[in-house]
Specification:
heterotetramer, A alpha/beta, C mainly alpha, D mainly alpha, A: alpha/beta, Rossmann fold, 4-stranded antiparallel sheet, 23% strand, globular, D: mainly alpha, 2 domains, two-stranded antiparallel ribbon, 11 helices, 3% strand, flat, binds adenosine-5'-triphosphate, binds magnesium ion
Amino acid sequence: MTNLIETAEQLSIKTKAVSLRNLCFSYEQERAILTDINLEIASGESVGLIGANGAGKTSLFLAVCGILKPTYGEIKLFERPIQTGEFNPEIGLVFQNPSDQLFCPTVRDDIAFGLENIGLDPEEIKARIASALSLTGVTHLAERISHQLSGGEKCMVAIAAVLAMLPQIVLYDEPSANLDMRARRRLIKFLQSSHETTVVSSHDLELIIEVCDRVVMLNQGRIVADGTPEEIMSNTSLMEANGLEVPHSLTHSHRR
Amino acid sequence: MTNLIETAEQLSIKTKAVSLRNLCFSYEQERAILTDINLEIASGESVGLIGANGAGKTSLFLAVCGILKPTYGEIKLFERPIQTGEFNPEIGLVFQNPSDQLFCPTVRDDIAFGLENIGLDPEEIKARIASALSLTGVTHLAERISHQLSGGEKCMVAIAAVLAMLPQIVLYDEPSANLDMRARRRLIKFLQSSHETTVVSSHDLELIIEVCDRVVMLNQGRIVADGTPEEIMSNTSLMEANGLEVPHSLTHSHRR
Amino acid sequence: MHIPDGFLSPSVCITGYALTGGVTWQCLRQIDRDRDIQANIPKASLLTAAFFVASLINIPIPPTSIHLIFNGLMGALLGYYAFPAILIGLFFQAVMFQHGGMSTLGVNAIILGTPAIAAYYLFQQRHLLRDKKPFLTTILSFASGAGALLLSATMFAILLVTNISPDMDINAERTAIFISLGGYGIQAVIEGVFTVMLISFLERVKPELLNS
Amino acid sequence: MKLILDRYAYLDSPLHRWQQGYKLIGLLSLIFAFAVIQNIWLLPLMVIITWVLFSLSEIPVGFLIKRLRYPSWFIFAVVILLPLISGTTPILQLGYLTIKQEGSWQAILISVRFFCILTVSLVLFGTAPFLNSIKAMRSFGMPRVIVDMTLLSYRYLEELGEMLTTMQRAMKLRGFKARGFNRRTLKVFAQLTGSILIRSYERSSRIYQAMILRGYGSQISKKKQKKIEFDQSDRYSLRATITVVTMAILLIVLEAILPSFP
Ligand SMILES: Nc1ncnc2c1ncn2[C@@H]1O[C@H](COP(=O)(O)OP(=O)(O)OP(=O)(O)O)[C@@H](O)[C@H]1O
Ligand SMILES: Nc1ncnc2c1ncn2[C@@H]1O[C@H](COP(=O)(O)OP(=O)(O)OP(=O)(O)O)[C@@H](O)[C@H]1O
Ligand SMILES: [Mg+2]
Ligand SMILES: [Mg+2]
């Protein structure tokens, strides 16, 4: 198992982790939610996805994971088309609200859930749980009841549950919403140190600046900008045209 | 009606809108959630309440509204003790999650709900709905189904529903969580222009800086600081000791 | 409307469990045919929890207040999932609030669960007519809510009164049953009206919830 | 809403050490034996067994009394009538009312049975985390669908309970007070219930997506049924279960052979 992943990681240095071609999506026939998305993400990259409410960030994530079926276009992960409606082990998604994702009673059960589904044996499951917990720094929470955790703890446990599946690509949907500063700082530290290919959607632009080396901006289901965080986020006219604001950390350093 | 309120407003220039004396609270006998809170808020003031997750912000709001019964101490609004467990028309609370507050089919029904509860006649109700909608800038949503609104729209509707009751004091519990920048900017504009005595609890310190002229910091149920936003939030050691971070807009202007 | 521990003879309790086993098995067979079983389990579970929570709401009827039973509504919304949902809800109630009991769980599941399935069949009939649908839906909602409750109340009263004491005479039993049914008649009307209001709310705000 | 059932689940008493799967078998058979009892002579024995179990569990008496309070009202309301309407042998005449012997014994029988079964249930579910009880049921071959639904709904009970509390607070803060019973009150409660149903329903679809993303319903997971085995090596639990089941059988046998009273 571990060998296989290492090989994949070595390979993926050259490969594209995600490649979307002419992706279109709409919930019902009516209105297009995603229109003609073309995007390539190299393995190991860390990309921020920004855009106003309703821009289509969550929908894009769900499509890339294979939950929503695109109306047109193709989605490849590591050069292989994904299977819609099926489980794609290459990719994991951390939901906006961690309570939606912690559906088992205790933290340990929750992390075990996915591992049992893919049919691992109990020894392997135990080892993976331990390593996921220590990676996210929440080993002490293993036996706790998920419902009783604080917001920040829930967030880290949700991440641990996804990472235990050893995905090569991890999507984070607004991970810092509702966190207080201490928890947010811990999350930023964690994201900075993680090795997977990551895509982070967030309204918290300061977080994106600290974590990502590339930013993709979405507006009404279309990609309207793609570049480095500084380049895009300090462009006042671009930001304002898309319903965003230049973050404080960039305005000040530029103005003075 | 309107006359009455104007008189109250004139009066209240001298009066204390909120005064808490030795307020203590705990959910069960066990752990104290709020300890010896002493706080006075003058009428017309706009106060920010900050503190890490679990500091007791929401509990304080619920106590001030008369929902939670203090274990000790007294709460006065405009020099009158509040009635615990009863409806106190002087005060309104905007909940953290607007969905908690919207349970009628349409936006109009939702705003009418409180007005019907206090037994106003249909003409008055209509007038109040119209003025609350226009004040919050969501007149166009009146006939929409509240449940299907976007996050930012829900937030403004929830505020409209509270303001329609014409409270003199309004408490906002993390109003900007989950809002995108445009909605947040609209909220800030709205809060800056509002005339009621307001208390805003938020993790979004930039919002507090723009909206409030006084900040109260809570830690583990105690008030640990009280002063102007700049004074308190630029005090790095104070902020960090309480699990907070100095906001970007203040670090930069001070550093350089 | 939960028979507590200690009231029923063991033969009735065991029959209750046996019947519950049979009905559950039948429902699970129907559920297994469901194409979307994977998606429906989370849905049915969350709605089970929601109904459990909603049954804690106090509806004031001075000088007292009542809790609604919701078994007709559960049938209308959950179909065959309603029976396991009610069984689970009763188990939670027995263990957490001492409403009903462990020995009478089977009997109580039959009392509340089978009317829910009946309500499901009844409510399905609204697909019969193309037009005049709102009117038909109103009628059927009322009938599901009120009917399921009356059915349950009848079973409850008969079981309780006939089992409570071997020495009671037939006439006294009959009177007791009728008196209690009179009380439940009022609750049935409330439950029916409530079901109508709730279904019309759902139809307006979230019609998907009804069409599954 | 606080489901304080598990409050004393983490003590360390002889009953807490008894594995939940074994305990379920033992105490459930005892509960059924109690339900069988019709003979007044056996009531003291039943009370003694119950009392021993309860004191071994180290659950405070106050907790038991608090939980008995509500259901006792129902029992009381029914049982108080029995001596008046059931039976033929009068033992006391109070004005128009005749207290009859058979009814009185019946009332005592029902109350004691009720009290004992309830206490044993409380011991059964109060001496282990509730989750262990559900998981133990899985090992009895309970259908997968039921166990999954129980676990999932249990997980969200308290969250939905908080949702209800918060929404009711919001209603109160806008002056809602259920004054009397009328159309509007009922409508408001219907909307409140409807909102909770809708929010839970929407939530369930997100939960389902999260489950698929972790391989729920994939081919492997369908094949593999997880089972919790009984820990054979746990002699203590085995012995405790055998003791209690023997007691249950003994009670049933006694019920069958003892002459009835009166
Ligand atoms: N289940 C659904 N059915 C129909 N339309 C939907 C559904 N979910 C989302 N939409 C619509 O799709 C659009 C994009 O929604 P999406 O959730 O992807 O936006 P987002 O960028 O994630 O926004 P946010 O920042 O609020 O999370 C919105 O206009 C929304 O109203
Ligand atoms: N219903 C309750 N029962 C018992 N304890 C509670 C309850 N609600 C909150 N608490 C506890 O009270 C403390 C204060 O909670 P409160 O919600 O007031 O904090 P807060 O400052 O609003 O936090 P946040 O920023 O997360 O909203 C927390 O430790 C919390 O665990
Ligand atoms: Mg989103
Ligand atoms: Mg709070």
